[in-house]
Each structure stands twice: as structure tokens, then as C-alpha cells.
Amino acid sequence: MIEKTEKIIMLKDFYGPLLTEKQQDVLNLYYENDWSLSEIADSMNISRQGVHDLIKRAELSLLEYEQRLGLLQRFSLTRQYLEQVFAVLKDRNWVEQVQIDRVLKLLQEIDNLI
Question: What is the domain extent for residue 24?
């Protein structure tokens, strides 16, 4: 399971351009630069509560975009399938037909996601 900070950063990578510039800035400062609410509030000349509200609204927007579009889920599944393909290819016995069939099946799953 992806921890919350990592998930929000990844969601921001996918959907960040859909947020307002202010929401993007606040998420960058909070999650990637590890600023406190007070530091962000001082920097942006808004209240701590305003920063908190901006963060929560931005997080909610990111989660809604993911629920509708599923880009992070597809990315994660693609990564899992590729890791399995690499594991099979690293196996010295991968030439066996069963392994070839497994690689082909995994590649088909990746193709379906893309």
C-alpha cells in the first residue's frame, strides 16, 4: 500500500496541471518541501486555516480525478506487470515455453492497460 504522502505526490504528478496554481504551490511546499502550515501561511500571506483548507481541497480534487480517470492505478499495474516480466527474464530458465507464455501474457496485460 502506498503511504499517503507518496500517493498525493504521485497523484499531483499525474493531475497537478488540473489544479489551480495556488493549490499546486501549496501541495509542493507541504508534501515535497516539507513546510509546515505556518511556514506556508507566512510565505503566502494567508492564514494557517486557509492553507489547511487549500491542501484538503486539492487532495480531494486529486482523489476525484483518480477515481474518474484511474491513471495512477494503471501506472501501478503496469509497473507490477513489468516487474514480473523482468523477474521472468532474469530467470536462467526463461526459455521454457511456459515462461515464454507467461511473458507474453504479462505483455498483453500491459498492452491492454496502455
Answer: 4-69
Domain with residue 19: its CATH number is: 1.10.10.10
Q: Assess contact for 10 and 59: CB atoms under 8 A.
A: no
Cβ 85 vs Cβ 106: under 8 Å: yes
For residue 41, what are the CA distances in angstroms to 1, 12, 34?
31, 20, 13
The pTM of this model reads: 0.76
Enter the DSSP assignment of 114: -
Q: Decide if 103 contacts 89 (C-beta within 8 A).
A: yes
**Exposure b/e, 74-96, CB count within 10 A at least 16 = b:** eeeebeebeebbeebeeeeeeee
pLDDT for residue 92 is more than 90 = no
Distance CA 95, CA 114 (A): 26
